[in-house]
Design brief:
Blueprint lengths: L12 E3 L8 E2 L5 E2 L5 E4 L5 E3 L3 H12 L13 E3 L6 E3 H9 L9 E6 L5 H9 L3 E7 L5 H5 L4 E6 L9 E7 L8 H9 L2 E12 L15 E2 L2 H10 L3 E6 L6 E7 L12 H25 L3 E4 L3 H9 L6 E3 L9 E2 L2 E4 L8 E5 L3 H11 L4 E5 L5
Parallel strand pairs: 8-9, 8-11, 9-10, 11-12, 16-17, 16-20, 17-19, 20-21
Antiparallel strand pairs: 1-4, 2-3, 4-5, 5-13, 6-7, 12-15, 14-15, 18-19
Helix pairs in contact: 2-3
């Protein structure tokens, strides 16, 4: 019997062949074992991990020692323009674009659900000083730091359904992809949002970045059509859905409005199979290059780079990054170099989505060090 979809609860999940052979990575960038199961629902078309007792046990193990942004000493990940190299924090860029499509009043009450170490709350506080801020997280590891943010009032841990009061904005920044039964979860969030309030959701985009499929603790891998359908079923209306604000991500602004029946055409399975085949091709390509090179490094220190390092079983001697918070540190016991510090004669594999990879390789490549882009996806 095929497993049941954990998103719509109606369809069955058709597993994609070959994925279980690929090693995975945790969302806080640690290598993880192979053995994952990935597929597409034949009713709602949502790409998803098989959510079962094995996956739940793995998540418990991952979250027991979860450490956010360790490569940069806890500083929020920066997003880069692949051609120019210009950068900003993810939250700053998201909020800069948000005001282009949504009217944010001078006062209100925002809750960031899954607030991590407070990156989004800090950015929001700097821009909207008249707002009251709250945050929730499954543990209290960063509570003291978050409570020091100007305008911050309440920290909550535990079930979303137990949050008191209602809010003008609820934000879910890289949260929903971790949640099993996301429709029920969004229903709980909906009950905490005032009439006319806004929901802000940030998600990884596997269509832009197939490496996202390798994250072991992600339950669901969304596309624009599947997230819009899910939001409609949870009594939200999507007001703005884009993959243009932040590279490799989906940004969604939704309103607490009556649902609109919407069901995307279930056409993701072919694309999912192609993405898994491409990931395997990237692995084989990098292995061949690493075996031939006398000084081999990997560009990046996040999901894709961590996964590739694991697949290569430590054959990379260093990482390369442009984030000043990360350069000079170490990742997986290897040094993190800036582009100008890469040893002469080295080969650097730019393990990012094809267009971004090609742009970075062209910008940074020189006679001193060779930067190799990944092959174009099929």
């Amino acid at each position: 019997m095929k497993p049941r979809c954990h998103v719509c609860g109606e369809g069955s999940v058709e597993l994609v062949a070959g994925f279980s052979q690929l090693r995975r990575v945790t969302s806080d960038c640690r290598p993880w074992s192979a053995g994952g199961r990935l597929g597409t629902c034949d009713v709602c078309a949502t790409v998803q991990t098989l959510v079962d007792a094995q996956w739940q046990a793995e998540c418990r193990e991952i979250y027991q020692s979860y450490a956010i942004y360790t490569q940069g000493g806890g500083a929020e990940q920066r997003v880069f323009d692949s051609s120019s190299g210009a950068s900003a924090s993810r939250s700053d860029q998201l909020l800069d674009r948000l005001v282009e499509v949504a009217d944010i009043p001078k006062q209100g009450h925002l809750i960031d659900i899954g607030c991590g170490n407070g990156g989004f709350l800090r950015s929001f506080s700097r821009r909207h000083s008249g707002w009251r801020l709250s945050g929730s997280e499954f543990d209290e590891k960063h509570r003291a730091s978050i409570e020091s943010i100007p305008g911050f009032e309440k920290f909550f841990s535990g079930d979303v359904r137990d949050l008191p009061g209602e809010f003008d904005i609820c934000s879910l920044i890289h949260v929903l992809e971790h949640i099993e039964a996301p429709r029920e979860f969004l229903g709980s969030v909906r009950s905490k949002l005032k009439a006319g309030g806004l929901l802000i959701v940030e998600l990884p985009s596997f269509r832009q970045n197939p490496f996202e499929l390798l994250i072991a603790d992600h339950a669901t891998h969304f596309e624009p059509g599947t997230i819009e359908s899910l939001l409609a079923n949870a009594q939200f209306k999507s007001l703005h859905v884009t993959g243009e604000w932040i590279p490799k991500e989906l940004s969604i602004v939704a309103g607490a409005l009556p649902p609109i029946a919407h069901r995307p055409r279930p056409a993701s399975q072919d694309h999912l199979s192609s993405a898994v085949h491409w990931l395997d091709a990237v692995r084989r390509d990098a292995m061949g290059l690493a075996q031939q090179s006398t000084s081999f490094g990997i560009f990046g220190t996040s999901i894709a780079a961590t996964w590739l390092f694991s697949e290569l079983q430590g054959k990379a001697a260093f990482f390369v990054d442009e984030d000043p918070d990360r350069v000079g540190g170490r990742h997986l016991e290897r040094p993190i170099y800036g582009a100008s510090d890469v040893p002469a004669g080295s080969d650097v594999y730019v393990v990012l989505p094809p267009k971004i990879s090609a742009a970075i390789a062209a910008r940074l490549g020189s006679a001193a060090a060779r930067y190799h882009p990944v092959a174009a996806s099929s």
